[in-house]
Amino acid sequence: MFRILTRKEKTIILREFNKWGIFNYLQDKLIVVKECEDSIKYLFLISSVLENFIFYPCTFYGGLPIGNLHKKKFLPSITFFDVVAKYSNNFLYVIVNSNGEKLILYGRDVFGNSIEYASLGIEENSVILLLNKSKEVLGVGRARFSTTKIKENGKVTINTLLDLGTYLRLENDPL
Amino acid sequence: MSCILLPKSEKSYQLATKYNFKEWMIARYLTIVPNTEKFLDYISNRASNQYIRINSLKIDIDTLKQKLLEKDFKLEKTVLSEVFLIKESKFPIGATMEYLSGYYYIQDLSSCLAVESLDIEEDDVVLDMAASPGGKTSFIAQKMKNRGMILALESERKRLRKMMFNLSRCGVINTVLWNLKGEKIINYNFKFDKVLLDAPCSCDGIMQKDPARKLTYTKETIRYCSIRQSQLIESALKVVKPNGLLVYSTCSLAPEENEFVINSMIGKYDITVESINYGADSLLKFGDKIMNKSIKFTKRLYPHIHNTAGFFIAKIRLNNINK
Q: How close is the nearest chain A Cα to the Cα of B117, in Å?
């Protein structure tokens, strides 16, 4: 069943939106929660028009799935990062070549020699967007090295956390 | 409605033997499908066409066309500006970065024509009654530019997650998905500007893509589907706003699932069957059954004539309150 966020949940999520520079994207929108048996809370961002249809027992999902809350931690989805790439100018990223692009879409990690550009300010363990040459989001990764060392040859320098192929790999899992 | 059987003939026997079909099916196709032998040859010996619909919620048409051309895709225009026939591709079209990014959706032209017939406006409230896997829903959202609202229904739980991913991938944010049988929508007090009922059917229109359907296609399937379709269309007509539109479609060639269903609603409801610009005229007679003249406005698509799946589309406007 869907419900609106509690105050505590709202604080956690708004902090994350703020951190990624997309706080303004929330204007006129509502975040709703679907609680499932696996104790994970699935989060959806909906426009006011959808409100009339969302709070029914038969609702499976609505609007934009932005991630989930697990033990007070917000785990964003790939669609959340799509919004970040589109509406924020405050995020760390790397641009990879076409070989890197293919590997990311298969959920593989990123080698230093696949990286064509790395934004300034990346540190070890930074969560960064993985973009292709057209600056389209391929996925999200965790940096193993800082900006200066991230292009190092022959080494995995970013661990892929989420990628566009997730859509295909998870589509038959239960929710 | 029971499946109507037509007399067998030497021709039906010959074609059934040549193309490995059940003879009763061929006897019907000889009446239903123009140039039947060409049809049988086409669906038996050619791979089905692959179409993509460019998703303008995520990318503009020219930019994606350019990207695909760079990957050596050969595209051909269709009657719809967003839809292209894939003439040649070096990669599987369901495994490109552009597909995963939701820049295009693999969808038959016939399905897109059903959505086109809904005359979608941006702020409409739309019901998609049998929505999975979400191709038509995402095209509706595209036409609405993610405004308005779509309520999508899918009764099979195992298909819901796939649909959610399809819609998310395509950047659709104006949709709520319910796990509900289409017939049950009348229990909720909602009315819709537009309703799409792409009804569950016997699917003989997609035998070219899935030849196994030759074996599973039975008279009982036709009977079962036509009953279900009549129930669904009645529910649909009860939730369309006055002056609202219902588009009914199937990928079946059986008149019992198409013309008969629409014909049975004329007179029972105050509706007008409106014309559709694309496709071949529907049947005004099948077996002993004579259809209302307005059935001529519904359309059929045939693989060997229109290069699509076998398909049926009816566009119905609710004139006033239900009788």
A: 24
